[in-house]
Amino acid sequence: MGQFKTDQLVDRLEAAAKARQATIARLRARPAANDPAVLARQATRWAIVQAREVRANEREAARLAAEAQREAEAIAARERKVAEAARLAAEKVEQQAALAAEQKAARDARFAARKAKVKARR
Question: How many CA atoms does the CB half-sphere of 16 hold within 13 Å?
């Protein structure tokens, strides 16, 4: 039994050592930071990032323009509503004034008719 466990431990240690060696080899095989291929990849990534930022800024500008347009339309609608309310109020005032004038004319006509009736009796 003791031998079986020892073999497993040795196997695991060897596997871990091989994994470390493979990782070190992979890191050593990486190209240097000033390698033309690495620099080209970095430039490509940078260009992609810049293009993404430009698109994001354009979307934000379009969103702000649309929001400003909606706000302007809302303000114009409110102004139209206020103007319509003012127009209706002015019409109502005119109608009331016309009705009052009509009623006064009718009252004056009745008064004049009564006066004429009284004069006709005399």
Answer: 6
Distance CA 82, CA 76 (A): 10
Which of 95-107 are b and which e, b meaning 16 or more Cβ less than 10 Å from the residue's Cβ?
eeeeeeeeeeeee
* Rounded Cα–Cα distance for residues 28 and 15 (Å): 20
- Is residue 38 within 8 A of residue 31, CB to CB? The reply is yes
Any idea which residue has 């073999």 for tokens?
7
User: pLDDT tens for residues 31-58?
Assistant: 777 888 889 999 999 999 999 999 999 9
CA distance 54 to 80: 39
Number of H helices, E strands in the chain: 2, 0
pTM of the model: 0.49
Average pLDDT value for the chain: 91
> E strands of the chain, at which residues?
none
Tokens of 18: 């091989």
